[in-house]
Amino acid sequence: MLNVTVLVSGGGTNLQAIIDAMEAGRIRNARIVRVISNNPGAYALERAAKAGVDAACISPKDYPGRPAYYEALADALREAGTDLVVLAGFMVVLPETIIREYRGRIINVHPSLIPSFCGTGFYGLKVHEEALKRGVKVTGATVHFVDEGTDTGPIILQKAVEVRDDDTPETLQRRVMEDAEWQIMPQAIDLIAGGRVEIRDGRACVME
Predict the structure, then answer these.
(1) What is the pTM assigned to this prediction?
(2) What SS3 string covers the chain?
(3) Which of 22, 23, 37, 45 is the least buried, fewest Cβ under 10 Å from its Cβ?
(4) Quick one: how far is CA 143 from the chain centroid?
(5) Does the annotation mark 110 as catalytic?
(6) Alpha carbon of 51 to those of 3, 43, 46, 86, 172: distances in Å?
(7) Exposure string (b/e) for 46-58, b if CB count within 10 Å is 16 or more?
(8) Nearest to residue 144, comparing CAs of 169, 171, 113, 174?
């Protein structure tokens, strides 16, 4: 059984998609052992509580500096027996110490088809604003492993979403979430739990 810890900063819609997929049997051999937020007001903590999942707020504001905060975060991951760290809208950059400890065991969902509209500064509505500004006809979402760069880790899954002429950043964001993010994040967790993802020569390979 794969022990999953989900890190989230806001509403937790991707967290809910994971919870729903587990309850529906679309994610097998995995369970959420802890949800951690850096934001005490995050609705994701309520979603976790409603699902009977251990939830905790670990905020940088409660520590004298980033090193102490990062150590508290690492301790919380270890205490939960975490096998896989899932970043589901987590607005904190993980330190190299945690990335090293969980190398190949941290995944993130990004609301574009990487390498488009990704990297430093590309998050939330900004991604969709830039996609519309550029006039792309197709966007989507990407689930990737996390490394020391920003959105540079090996890509596990991608799903395309059509951009419509009448889209706003808000409508595009919603459709990317519903049609891509909420589909491929649970799928990626299921693949990893089933031992069907390997990193070879810097690339994530999905086995049949």
Answers:
(1) 0.95
(2) CEEEEEEECCCCHHHHHHHHHHHCCCCCCEEEEEEEECCCCCHHHHHHHHCCCCEEECCHHHCCCHHHHHHHHHHHHHHCCCCEEEECCCCCCCCHHHHHHCCCCEEEEECCCCCCCCCCCCCCHHHHHHHHHHCCCEEEEEEEECCCCCCCCCEEEEEEEECCCCCCHHHHHHHHHHHHHHHHHHHHHHHHHCCCEEEECCEEEECC
(3) 23
(4) 7
(5) yes
(6) 16, 13, 9, 17, 28
(7) ebbeebebebbeb
(8) 113
Q: Answer yes or no: are the C-beta atoms of 188 and 143 closer than 8 Å.
A: yes
Instruction: Give the closest residue to 80 by CA, choosing from 104, 56, 108, 109.
Output: 56
Considering the chain, what is the average pLDDT of its residues?
Answer: 97
The residue type found at 49 is: A
Amino acid at 82: T
Structure tokens at 166: 């009448």
**Which tokens is 64 given?**
């004298």
Query: pLDDT tens for residues 52-61?
Result: 999 999 999 9
Alpha-carbon gap, residue 88 to 18, rounded angstroms: 10
Structure tokens at 40: 């005490």
In this predicted structure, the answer to whether residue 28 has a pLDDT above a threshold of 80 is: yes
Question: Catalytic residue among 70, 90, 108, 110, which?
Answer: 110
Q: Which residue has the tokens 């919380």?
A: 76
